[in-house]
Specification:
The complex is a heterodimer.
Chain A lengths: L2 E14 L5 E14 L3 E5 L6 H8 L7 E8 L2 E4 L5 H10 L1 E4 L11 H11 L4 H14 L16 H13 L5 E5 L7 H16 L3 E5 L3 H7 L2 E4 L8 E3 H8 L1
Chain B lengths: L15 E10 L2 E11 L4 E6 L5 H8 L7 E8 L3 E4 L5 H10 L1 E4 L3 H4 L6 H11 L5 H14 L16 H13 L5 E5 L7 H18 L2 E5 L3 H7 L2 E6 L2 E7 H6 L4 H8 L5
Parallel strand pairs in B: 3-8, 3-9, 6-7, 7-8
Antiparallel strand pairs in B: 1-2, 1-4, 4-5, 9-10
Helix pairs in contact in B: 4-5, 4-6, 6-7
The chains are: A alpha/beta, B alpha/beta.
Main location (chain B): membrane
GO molecular function (chain B): ATP binding; ATP hydrolysis activity; lyase activity
Membrane topology (chain B): Peripheral membrane protein
Chain lengths: ~240, ~270
């Protein structure tokens, strides 16, 4: 199977200049490959650096060293060496990211929040609207909310709008930061379906899933990440056995 | 997938390219050794505290202030890249009136207060040769609608407008001739927050719809988060950190940027 994402030598430390210049090492020399149709779950205790790694894979955080190789428009590019305008392009069509919280834009309605990335990626407006409506319907966002700006929505509703926004484009690589954190069982099931459908379309997924049920339903393997310890990979099935 | 296969796609040629720009006021440094490029359709934010040189830089870029050293190359429609500092004054004014827009912090600096709202918008098309009154008025009203000003106010003078309306009118006046580059100095400064949100949303929509490049100077991080693709942070006349907006704001490296980001009150 083709490799969709290959991170190597990733090293990240934070230097907190406002707090006496404390240096916090997060991870060192991380290597991660994700194949098409595979879902890798970043796993480790709270504070281990899962979110930092996920944000680094989106070039939201700037690792100190390493490469993140992705195939963009038929060419292999290193996300960390790319110029800012290139990163914008790569994010527009190649790497999607669903954050934990929706960053709401004042006065833009939920439906338009969802269609925006698709239209920016060249999808005709009518098609994007149809797809957004389907996603919002599946994620149980009532139709009367579609034209309203999500600022006043509940946390779970905002997160579902965020998920719809992430799944409307078929990004070859999709990064998910706790997509089911504040969802009820029915919506968790929908998100599991969306992830599995994306996998069957060959999308490579890296995610953080705290919910064990969700993790077992979607993850092909776990990628262990812990403070100052060597990272290693454990097959999800083996881990499930240990836990049960 | 190997690193040896790395090849970069060709970048779009820059619309504006600045190199080694410095400006002092006597012994006081305005801005020092600034270099950057803006590509077509790209929105660049410049943040920093008061006195960091943001406004000096913007004034130099938009031709309102002569820098001491450096060059500012602009890709002119009919001539290709030209150092605008070598243009003669009429040429530079024509450029500023047609291909650029300048949105001042204080809308009263960018509007004619004794000319009607419609007249303020119609002035630039007229300067470019538009003569048909009906067409000019239709276009002006079209823009008043875009910036959400009631058409009943077309013939009123902006003196009678609220601050938020004046700022929206100033934006319409600048964008009507479809400039390729817009300079904005604190476009939301002095407006109350509810009006700011409306203006930001409007600007965001217009910038995307028209594909104009913009350079926005502000000290408001929320403004750049919403509008800018790329960010430069200035302190004491120098650029101390730059990068994608979300990178700089979410993972700031320079001590001053960290202080700036951590000083924002969470609501």
């Amino acid at each position: 199977m083709t490799i969709r994402l290959h991170a190597k030598g990733l090293t990240k430390t934070f230097t907190l200049h406002t707090q006496g210049g404390i240096v916090l090492p997060v991870f060192d020399d991380v290597e991660l490959t994700v194949k098409a149709g595979e879902c890798v779950c970043l796993h480790g205790p709270s504070g281990a650096g899962k979110s930092t790694l996920l944000r680094s894979l989106y070039a939201n955080y700037k690792p100190d060293a390493g490469q993140i190789l992705v195939k963009h428009l038929g060419q292999t590019v290193d996300l960390l060496a790319a110029e800012p305008w290139e990163v914008v392009e790569i994010r527009r069509s190649t790497i999607g990211y669903v954050s934990q919280f929706l960053r709401v834009i004042p006065r833009v309605g939920a439906l338009n929040v969802v269609t925006e990335p698709a239209i920016a990626n060249g999808m005709p407006a009518a098609e994007a609207t149809a797809k957004a409506q389907e996603l919002l319907m599946r994620l149980h966002i009532p139709q009367r909310l579609w034209s309203l700006a999500p600022a006043t929505f509940s946390g779970g509703e905002q997160q579902r709008v965020n998920i719809a926004r992430g799944f409307i484009v078929d990004y070859p690589v999709l990064l998910l930061d706790e997509p089911t954190a504040s969802l009820d069982a029915a919506n968790r099931a929908t998100v599991v379906d969306l992830i599995n459908e994306a996998k069957s379309r060959g999308i490579a997924i890296v995610g953080i899933f705290h919910d064990e049920e969700v993790r077992e339903a979607v993850a092909d393997r776990l990628f262990e990440i812990g403070n100052q310890t060597a990272t290693r990979t454990v097959p999800a099935v083996a881990l499930a056995e240990v836990l049960s | 997938m190997t690193a040896s296969a790395l090849r970069k796609p060709a970048p779009k040629p820059p619309l504006l390219e600045v190199s080694g720009l410095s400006k002092s006021y006597g012994t006081q440094v305005g801005c020092r050794d600034i270099s950057f490029a803006v590509r077509p359709g790209e929105v660049l934010g410049i943040v920093g505290e008061s006195g960091s040189g943001k406004s000096t830089l913007l004034a130099c870029l938009s031709g309102r202030l002569q820098p001491d050293t450096g060059s500012i190359s602009y890709d002119m429609k009919d001539r290709g890249p030209v150092d605008i500092l070598t243009l003669c004054e009429p040429e530079r004014r024509r450029l500023a009136r047609t291909d650029w827009g300048i949105v001042h912090q204080n809308p009263r600096d960018g509007l004619r207060l004794d000319v009607s709202a419609g007249g303020n918008i119609g002035e630039r098309p007229m300067a470019l040769g538009a003569r048909h009154y009906g067409n000019i008025r239709t276009e002006a009203q079209d823009w008043l609608q875009k910036v959400e000003i009631d058409l009943a106010r077309t013939d009123d003078r902006p003196r009678t407008f609220s601050g938020g309306m004046q700022q929206r009118l100033q934006i319409a006046r600048n964008l009507v001739t479809r400039p390729r580059l817009v300079f904005m100095d604190e476009p939301t400064g002095g407006l109350d927050v509810s009006v700011q949100a409306r203006l930001l949303d409007l600007l965001r929509g217009l910038v995307r719809e028209l594909g104009v490049a913009a350079i926005i100077v502000t000290h408001d991080l929320a403004v750049v988060r919403l509008l800018a693709d790329r960010l430069m942070v200035m302190q004491r006349g120098r650029v101390i950190e730059e990068g994608l907006t979300d990178q700089v704001l979410d993972d700031p490296h320079h001590p001053y940027t960290q202080l700036l980001v951590s000083s924002v009150l969470q609501v």
